[in-house]
């Protein structure tokens, strides 16, 4: 991991309310450059809301966000937003367009043009394993292929920080393995990743560190091994860690 002393992203007391509903409750997090950072928690923990604040989709948050030590205002500042890639939980692709047309369209939206756009679209197709389907309409794609394209679109402009919100929902095992490989490749190439999931197996396999979220707060932080040691059972899996921290199962939904 390429650690520097200043975190790539820092959240200080980040909070977000939907009316009276507190979704994110004074979150403090530091994401080191080069890390594959996991946000693990059950449905309703506040993962999506946190990531939407960082992505600039939500603007009415309170607290402070810093990017490379500078104040970060992604909802207001387009230059800040360009540093971020966002792969949303809901698929954001056009079924009537081919894979290539989708990439071309979203690449232009991300500010790419000319030879750079062509090169990034080619790289994205390869990353998603969709070269042979580039000219097929995406409406005919399987759920897994759509998810792979969704990832390819989010990282087209090679952002410094890639945010993924539950990217394996409805994905077959083959596409899941492909997504994991693609994300590992991106991370090894230096891209910092924040990955939200409610699957402990995914967090355990991919992420270090892992922040365990519950009711809008981080209740545990560290590698899977550190988290197990922190609850006094070095052999505990993340399910057991969560149970020990909250008194309830991560799988309860
Ligand atoms: N648009 C909204 N209006 C009102 N309350 C909301 C809205 N979106 C989320 N919430 C509430 O905010 C809290 C945090 O939700 P959030 O979606 O951020 O959690 P999550 O951990 O991402 O869960 P999930 O995996 O189900 O999306 C929950 O109590 C949820 O019901």
From TrEMBL:
Keywords: ATP-binding, Hydrolase, Nucleotide-binding. Residues 9-240 form the ABC transporter domain. InterPro entries: AAA+_ATPase (IPR003593), ABC_transporter-like_ATP-bd (IPR003439), P-loop_NTPase (IPR027417). Pfam families: ABC_tran (PF00005). SMART domains: AAA. The keyword Nucleotide-binding applies. Its EC number is 3.6.3.-. One of its GO terms (molecular function) is ATP hydrolysis activity. PANTHER family: LINEARMYCIN RESISTANCE ATP-BINDING PROTEIN LNRL (PTHR43582). This is Putative ABC transporter ATP-binding protein YxlF. The lineage of its organism: Bacteria, Pseudomonadati, Planctomycetota, Planctomycetia, Pirellulales.
